[in-house]
Predict the structure.
Amino acid sequence: MFLHIFLNRLKCLIRDKQVMFWTLMFPILLATMFKMAIPDVVNLEKFEPIDIAVINNVEYQNNIAFNSALSSVSSKESSSDLMFNTKIVNEEEAKELLKNNKISGYIILNDGPKIVVKESGFKQTILKQFINEYLQVTSQYHNILESNPASIQNFISELGSSESYIKEVSSNNDAPNSSVSYYYALIAMTCLYGAMHGMKEVLSVQANQSPQGARVSLAPTNKLKVFASSILAATVIQILIILILLTYLRFALNLDFGNQIGYIILTAVCGSLVGVSFGAMVGSIIKGKEGLKISIIVSFTMLFSFLSGMMWLDIKYIIANKVPILSYINPANVISDAFYALYYYDTYTRFFTNIGVLCVFSIIFYLITFFIMRRQKYASI
Amino acid sequence: MVVKVEKLVKRYNDLIALDHFNLEVKEGEVFGLLGPNGSGKTTAINCILSLLKYDKGNIEVFDKPMAPDAYDIKRDIGIIMQNVAVFDELTVYENIDYFCGLYVTDKEKRKKLVKEAIDFVALNDFKKFYPKKLSGGLLRRLNIACGIAHKPKLIILDEPTVAVDPQSRNNILEGIQKLNAEGATIIYTSHYMEEVEQICSRIAIMDKGKIIATGTKDELKSMIEIGEKISVELFTKVEHILSDIQKIKGVTSVNYENDLLVIKSKRGYNNLTNILDYLKENKISYGRIYSELPTLNDVFLEITGKQLRD
Ligand SMILES: Nc1ncnc2c1ncn2[C@@H]1O[C@H](COP(=O)(O)OP(=O)(O)O)[C@@H](O)[C@H]1O
Ligand SMILES: [Mg+2]
């Protein structure tokens, strides 16, 4: 019985042209358009120095090693082969500059260099990478520097050139330049479009939603069991779709996901669970024609995707700063943020936090769906 | 008793859709529920099937209280709803197989049942068709096949012939009689009195959420005062004719409309010859003349004061 329902529901979902368009063809078309519209690799030649600031405090003035390390990669007039455009300011000024987006971040020396940034991005990653490298190298050179100040030159050359940084950031962490961000948002959108499948499955078993549902409800089987196998079919279809999209992005559009493909798939699968459960919830809450529900799902998905930066990347950061709560309750943003976390952070704390948030979303959506669907008799059909 | 409904009350907000509705259907019957649109037929069926909540009343099916999880009862019921309930993405064969699979898990057994259902509604040539490609009549037949493939003991059909061509209609009506002959009890709702008269062994007439009369069609017809109805085509001025005919013994009403004189007599009076004599004596020329026995429409008209179909 379970398999019988599952297989037939798979057929129904695959053969539904309208839903297949939104869930599979539309994301592929959009990805193809992105590919044509946005250049997709960081162009090393065109690399612009990053505007940063350093706080002029006592520790900064006394830390010769850091001082020279920073000035070796900085310039005051923006010359192209250098990494940073560094201003030396006091803390108030630095905060002001950061607030007004004049700098990508600032360094404050307080028992070693710390960075303060407002958002995560390619430039911030480079800054962070520089500090990491500095800390690593200083720990090796620590004693030598103290005994032999002349060795500072070696130390600096060890830190490397700006180009090697960019390359390193690129190769180690798969350089999430801004164009890749659009694809993240696109994958997030595709996950959420799984809602179509979830919605359809609710429709197919709810007596007050469709005559087919009435027929299912009249059968000598627990409706929730029928629903469980239907929703599994929807989930399988959605995961297949997301895998097809990832394959298309990787091999047809040559997008490089680097060595984190396992985590990317995990994110896409969790995102798909959220999408399907979101649709189930919409389907059970809103009583009405399938067309109406599809419009609601499309509108919400597009809104979520827009707010997570699919059309205009800056919106993501604006929201993260002004109304941070919105970034957490927007599933599209959580999905794309999981992708960011994979690249910008060396640890997986933020990534798994996002994955956890996605699971919580799914559970909440399914609980709501369950409480609505548990009803077996209706006041009106 | 296959179905027993007592004092069922169902409200949709302010509207009382079923008002102390009673129903008893015995095994082996083809039971007709006849009533105009909006009289509450579908509501009654949905309450019996435990799809709708109701305000008061008692419902038993196969002598057991009906409930949404009374699976042993549901297993023996087949439903053909008034709205076609098939999946557009599944073919004729797959649809029947899918719904049958909710009742019958054994694959071999199901295969046989699905084949029988397809033969039954004569859709063999359309097995691989998708519902969207079927005409209204064929779609209705598919809808029926989906409801009966598991060989239920009680089959409920809610207006199965709406928007159906005459050929499919006959196929459907004959099919219902065949199912009944094979042992199924049938509940058939319709607002077409001809169909109900044609196939139902017992009929309940419904209006405004109430059963207003129950019985065989002859019993129903004998409940009313009116017997014979004579219609005469006339093309002349008629005032004095009307009053003359009114005086004939047993005549209860005379009406003239659209060149047609309609004379109704009490049960037990046969006035056709009297009227012919009257017309001859007075040298009144007339066109066609015919006499009919009362229909269920007359029954409905007499009880409610309105036509079954307006
Ligand atoms: N879901 C509903 N909400 C409100 N009123 C309804 C609903 N369904 C039916 N009705 C009303 O209840 C009455 C009975 O309807 P219904 O049972 O569909 O009649 P029938 O099947 O005999 O045509 C009608 O007046 C109809 O307008
Ligand atoms: Mg009806």
Summary: The radius of gyration of chain B is 23 Å. Residues B 41-42, 82, 158-159 surround magnesium ion (ligand 2) (CB under 6 Å). Chain B has a mean pLDDT of 91.
